[in-house]
Structures are given as C-alpha cells and as structure tokens.
Amino acid sequence: MLQISDLHATVADKPILKGLSLTINAGEVHAIMGPNGAGKSTLGYTLGGRPGYEVTGGSAMLEGADLLEMEPHERAAAGLFLGFQYPVEIPGVSNLQFLREALNAQRKGRGEAPLSGGEFLKIAREKSALLKMDMEMLKRPVNVGFSGGEKKRAEMVQMGILDPKLAILDETDSGLDIDALRICGEGINAIMRRPDKAVLLITHYQRLLDYVKPDFVHVLAGGRIVKSGGPELAHELEERGYEAVEGAAA
Amino acid sequence: MSAVAEILPTRAEEDWRYADVKALADLWPLPERETITVPAGGSFARSIVQTAGGVTRLSLVLEAKASAALHVLNAGGPYARVEIDVVLHEGADFTLGGAQLAQTGQTVEIVTKVTHAHPDAVSRQLVRSVAGGQGVVTYLGKVKVEPGADGTDGEQSVRAMLLDRTATANAKPELEIYADDVKCAHGCAVGELDANGLFYLAARGLPPAQAKALMLSAFIAEAFDGAEEGDHLQSLAQKLLEEAL
C-alpha cells in the first residue's frame, strides 16, 4: 500500500526527516510514536504535500504511484486521507457542501461519475451516525465553533465519506475526552479496518491504541524510525518512556 | 473631445480618486442619477447587478420610519462603478450589501454617501471585494451625521481579498459626525486567502481553483444575506469567481 524509502524532508531549510523508511501493507494498522519534535507531524504533512515541506531525497509510493509527484488534491484522489491534528476552520463553507464538492472532485480525478445530492446525503447520514454526530452539525460551517472533540469526530466523518485507501491520522486522540476517544477509535475501526485499506496512526500515547489495535508500532526519533515492533512496543514506551527505549535502540 | 474633458471628473476629486478616468471617458456622459423617495413607513428593496462594467447612480430618500435594502453585485470592466446616496429621516433604516470583483484591466468601485439627517435612523453597510491579477477594487463610504441626528446607529463593514500580490484594494470608510449621541462603528480589513484553509481543502481533494472559489464564495456570501434574490446573486457571483480563477 505505502512504501516510504529513505525519505528526507526539510521545513524552512531545516532538515526534519533524515532517511525515514516504512512499508505498510493493505490490511495493516501501524502506529508511529515519538517524542515532541521527532518529525511525526512533518511526516504526515510531507506525505500530504503541504506547501513548505520540501522533499530533499527518497521516495514515497502509494500503490505503486509516486505520491511526491502529485499535487495535494491528486494525492487525495489517489486514496490518501490526512487527518489533521488541528482541523482548520473555514467560515461560511458548510461541511456538506465542502464534502460533496471534495468527494465529487476526487471521483472526477479517478474518472468516476459524480454522486447526486441524494446519494451523497445517504452516505453522509450513515457516516455521521457511525461517529454519533448530529447531521445538523454537518450543515454548519467547517469546524467553526466546534469543540476540540467535535473537530476530531468531524474529521472521522470526513474520512468515512471520502472512503480513502490509506489514512494518516495525526494525533487524532489529542483533545478528546474518554467517550469521544472511544467513538473515534470505533469509527476508525469501522471505516478503515478492512483488508483493502491501511492506517498510519501518529500519536504520543498508548490510549488510542487501546481502541485501534496496531499491528506494528514504530518509534520515530531524530527524523528516522529507530525501533519497530508489535503492539507490545507501545506498552513498553508507555512504561519506560522514549528516552529509555530509544537509548536501547541506539 | 475637449468639451468632454472639461466635464469629466479628475482624480483630484475625492469621489473619483481611484477611478479609471480614461475608461470613464468611454462611458461618458454618465447616465442620469435615479432618485427614489421611499414614503414614511414604506419599504423598498432592489438588487443592482452590474457585471459587465458601467456606471449606476442611485439616490434614495427614506422618509420617517421607511426602510430600504440594496444588494449590489459589481464587476466587469474596464470600469464599473455603483454610486449610492442616501438621506435618512427619523427612524429610517437602510441596509447595503455589496460584493465586487475586479481582474486585470478592471477598476471596480462602490461609492456611498449616507446622511443621517434626523434622529434615530439606522444604516448598515457591508462590502466584500475581491481583486485578482492587476485588478483594482475600491470602496469609498461616507457616513454623515447631521447636527441633531441623535440616536444614529451606523455601521460599516468593509473587507477585501487580494488573490495576487499585484492586485489593489482601496477602502475608505469615513465618518463625519455633528451630533453627540451617536453610535458609528466601522471595520476595514484587506487580506489574502488563508493558506492553511486552502491546504485543508486540497488535502480533502479539491483542486486549487475550486478550493479558492469555495472560500471566496463564502467570503462574499455575507453581502447577499437577507437579499430576496440572494441565491441568484450568489450564483452569478460564483460564476464570475470561477472565471477569474
């Protein structure tokens, strides 16, 4: 599904990713953990194509297609979903209008026919129910006036509607209370835990991983993956801290 | 030709300081100013759609407790101007929502003069402008409160969005107040589209032009709030924005 090899990236000329390699197969859930400043969010933004995140070496392929050659909207159409740590507010643009336009733009990019208003609303209703989000909220402007937890749930509704192949979720668990964490976790499982999809969770904490059980856990430090393992690695990190685990890896 | 030059305004005149006087010459002589008096207690509404340039001039007199709502879509070129003069009598209520769009080679402006001649009148003016390429958008808005017009409540909200560093927005909200008990608020901002917002929309699959059009259409939508033909104005504006991007 996703093959990253020896990826180097800079932000404002400062090297952040320094030779990161990672392979994610269809059907797998991977978690990337790491201390502040390790490059976790940079990895997400670089794969998403955010302006200002410059790739200086290496490659990233999504199902054999060169992600780094594509514009951000083309990456979305190719099946990439980037969940934002801080979802952006867009005043005046309703969630429903935005998502319908986004979904149909993606479908157009893939050579598929656009969905009618009715077909779209059916999907939107289904996915908002899955995340226990009132449809009324989707009529409101994108993320405007949403609480931190509502923003993250809205992100998961977006993911459900856009139905990506690969989701990179950047600290989806931050700002969530216990109930919202469970709802988001269950949402991720329902939407993405499928043999033809894959997930990369970027997180600081074990707690989201209690709901979305990763198949692989990686430790990112200094712009590279310094240790990989199974779910037990997350527990070890939680108990011993990054320094101890990194130290053992180095 | 010389006779025309004598009566054409020059940019030394405050109301014409950002005008494209050369393009104006081709529109000369200007159309007659239309004058409408809304009788006491009456109401009036109009949408002014000028999308291929030109000059529209309107004078409104609102008698006591009369109300009027104007919604303006102003675009096209080379020169497009909407001039509105309003005189408010006691307790009258005036609303203006204006949206305008200029591209390279176009100078587009809304010029208003609202006079609170008597007490307790309300005026609300909201103008949203978009300029791309080397386009020029201007809003000159004067609110005058006459002596004795206490209880005046005036508000101006003026915002402009520049799509390119080469575009120009001029905004001059102006207050001239000769009464004591007056509430006049004005806000004015010139900016560009939020880069974070654009990346967010792109990351969800919207191509750049579509993402910009969506954000701009939300930006100007406020100008058509409450307009009877709001949806129609919005879809016309949307079409213009898509052409401009």
Annotate the secondary structure layout.
The complex is a heterodimer of chains A (250) and B (245).
Chain A: E1 2-11, E2 14-24, E3 29-33, H1 40-48, E4 53-62, E5 65-66, H2 72-77, E6 80-83, E7 90-94, H3 95-109, H4 117-130, H5 135-139, E8 141-142, H6 148-162, E9 166-170, H7 178-192, E10 198-203, E11 216-221, E12 224-229, H8 232-249
Parallel strand pairs in A: 3-10, 3-11, 6-9, 9-10
Antiparallel strand pairs in A: 1-2, 1-4, 4-5, 7-8, 11-12
Helix pairs in contact in A: 4-6, 6-7
Chain B: H1 2-7, H2 21-27, E1 34-38, E2 43-50, E3 54-62, E4 67-75, E5 79-88, E6 93-102, E7 107-116, E8 122-131, E9 136-145, E10 152-162, E11 168-177, E12 182-191, H3 195-203, H4 208-221, H5 230-244
Parallel strand pairs in B: 1-3, 2-4, 3-5, 4-6, 5-7, 6-8, 7-9, 8-10, 9-11, 10-12
Helix pairs in contact in B: 3-4, 4-5
Provide structural commentary.
The complex is a heterodimer of chains A (250) and B (245). Chain A has eight helices and twelve strands. Chain A has 250 residues and is an alpha/beta fold. A six-stranded mixed β-sheet of chain A has the order 6-9-10-3-11-12, sandwiched between helices. In chain A, strands 2-1-4-5 form a four-stranded antiparallel β-sheet. In chain A, helix 6 packs parallel to helix 7. The two termini of chain A are 29 Å apart. Chain B has a six-stranded parallel β-sheet with strand order 1-3-5-7-9-11, covered by helices on one side. Chain B has 245 residues and is of the alpha/beta class. Chains A and B meet through helix 2, strand 7 and helix 3 of A and helix 3 and helix 4 of B.
